[in-house]
Specification:
The protein is mainly alpha-helical and 172 residues long. The chain has a single domain, classed as Ferritin (Up-down Bundle). It contains five helices and no strands. Helix 3 packs antiparallel against helix 4 and helix 4 packs antiparallel against helix 5. The radius of gyration is 17 Å and the shape is elongated. Bound molecules: fe (ii) ion (2 copies). One fe (ii) ion binds next to helix 3.
């Protein structure tokens, strides 16, 4: 059995992960509409990963005797004025999620819930990678996105991203 506060925080994080998927699909909708199918693909794959995160947390809660409940998933409210906007929103969002996971980690540490800390270790590492990916995208866009040819090439590169189910992560 998990501590009630930790269980509630994790249950809330399930919602945040589904929201992440929703937000990234919103980015994908925007890029698809702009004719940037590679960018759209990149975020569609990203959305699949976010769903996986939600499923891992859901599984952890269930396996620890918690009745999982779902809340409303908020409507993505971003407006995109230029092609780099979604990339900036993406980094901002990953930083928000990292902080949210750190809060759960700190709460687990406070009550010596080492099991949850160990479970969250994978997410701490994952967030480091996600923030780096988001930063790299912003850098590439700044370097190459300025002219049509560069943007075309970058779009091609992002089109190559393929979803792969995590092999080393917590069970779903
Ligand atoms: Fe996530
Ligand atoms: Fe993420």
């Amino acid at each position: 059995m998990l501590d009630k506060k930790i269980a509630d925080m994790l249950n809330e994080q399930v919602n945040k992960e589904f929201y992440s998927a929703y937000l990234y699909l919103d980015f994908a909708n925007y890029y698809a509409d702009e004719g940037l199918d590679g960018f759209a693909n990149w975020y569609q794959v990203q959305a699949q990963e976010e769903r996986d995160h939600a499923m891992m947390m859901r599984r952890y809660l269930i396996d620890n005797g918690v009745r999982v409940t779902f809340g409303k998933i908020a409507k993505p409210d971003k407006t995109y004025k230029k092609h780099s906007d979604a990339l900036d929103f993406g980094l901002e969002h990953e930083q928000f999620v990292s902080a949210s996971i750190a809060e759960i980690y700190a709460a687990a540490n406070e009550i010596k819930d080492f099991k949850t800390m160990q479970f969250l270790d994978w997410f701490v590492k994952e967030q480091g990678e996600e923030e780096k990916n988001a930063e790299d995208l912003i850098k590439k866009m700044k370097l190459f996105g300025g002219d049509a040819k560069g943007l075309y090439m970058l779009n091609q590169e992002l089109a190559a991203r393929v979803y792969a189910a995590p092999t080393n992560g917590p069970a779903m």
